[in-house]
Amino acid sequence: MGLSYNTYLNSSKIYGCKNCKAHLANHEEIISRNFRGQHGKAYLFNTVVNVEAGEPSERSMTTGRHVVRDITCRQCKETVGWKYDKAFENNEKYKEGKFILEAELLCTVV
What we know:
Blueprint (H helix, E strand, L loop, with lengths): L13 E4 L5 E4 L3 E8 L2 E6 L5 E3 L3 E5 L2 E10 L5 E9 L11 E4 L3 E4 L1
Antiparallel strand pairs: 1-2, 1-10, 3-4, 4-9, 5-7, 6-7, 7-8, 8-9
């Protein structure tokens, strides 16, 4: 296995890992702020960087059943949210392939 390099984002507002400040997402990639995670407020993002996805698992959430993967910061290995692999409800299909980052686990990187 070779070296893994972090991706550095260039945006007016960048969200990073609260633990190690690694860049995770651009503010412009937010699809919705109307989500809740284990730690409170969470954001749905179109794309994120510098994360590793765990094994898929089926979970019952407030919006129905989904297959999701926990995502961790590539640099410090802290869990920062999850990725939606599959939604079983038709009106939830828009989440597939998208990412949740929990606000409590993020910081604004300057």
